[in-house]
Amino acid sequence: MYDIVFISYKESNADRNWNLLKSRYPSAKRINGVKGIQQAHIKAAKKCFTKMFWVVDADAELLDNFNFNYEVDEYNLETVHVWRSQNPVNDLVYGYGGVKLLPTRLTKKMDTSKPDMTTSISSNFKVINQVSNITAFNTDSFNSWKSGFRECAKLASRIIDRQNNTETIERLDTWCNKGTNRPFGLECIAGAKAGKKFGEKNKNNPKELAKINDFDWLLESFYAECKRN
Fold it and tell me: CA nearest 134: which of 212, 37, 59, 225?
């Protein structure tokens, strides 16, 4: 029904996950190596010919029972749809890293000044209560740190529209404390704590918060923290 796009940027498990997706859905497309999350999604939208398109992140390990047969009615063609994902470090299950179904036209002209990509596309947002994948970001030190940093910067700064404050506090606490015994769990927690601090400090500074979408800046920040510690 809708185009499927796999978006990758230097993830160590990207090729493996891409090959698995391609084996199940041969018509899937790939956007690889585009700097900036928003720019990558804009390029993805420009490659699509359907009114909506699916986005699968490079670190997503799709569940066997998930398929791409969801159909959007005409009243929701401008709505961002997000499925749930399981976090392999702290076991949280919510929209972080989940498969997304995006409106093509609106994605092409999204507001790139906003730090949170999904809420910069449309004011209409729908959570689908189904787990689509495991977000296997904990494959190396940097990607684990980066994932914790980015998500906790967004949570702590309250930039995500319609955030539930109690839920946000619980998620922040889990990101910052749980998973020490999991692969690269310590790096994830270190990134989460640094991201929380960064988000709280810059909650009223959208320009500074937008840096969380710049992977080169994140890599520099990661190395700087490694040197400090």
Answer: 59
Closest by alpha carbon to 198, among 153, 143, 139? 153
Could you tell me which residues come within 8 angstroms of residue 161 by beta carbon, excluding any fewer than 6 positions away? 116, 119, 123, 125
Per this entry, what is the length of the chain?
229
User: Region 188-205: what's the mean pLDDT?
Assistant: 96
Tell me which residue of 8, 24, 20, 19 sits closest to 58, measured CA to CA.
Answer: 8
CA dihedral of 200, 198, 212, 229, whole degrees rounded to 10? -160
Residue showing tokens 């910069």: 120
Percent of the chain with pLDDT over 90: 83
Per-residue model confidence as pLDDT tens digits over 28-75: 999 999 998 999 999 999 999 999 999 999 999 999 999 999 999 999
The alpha carbons of the chain give a radius of gyration, in whole angstroms, of 17
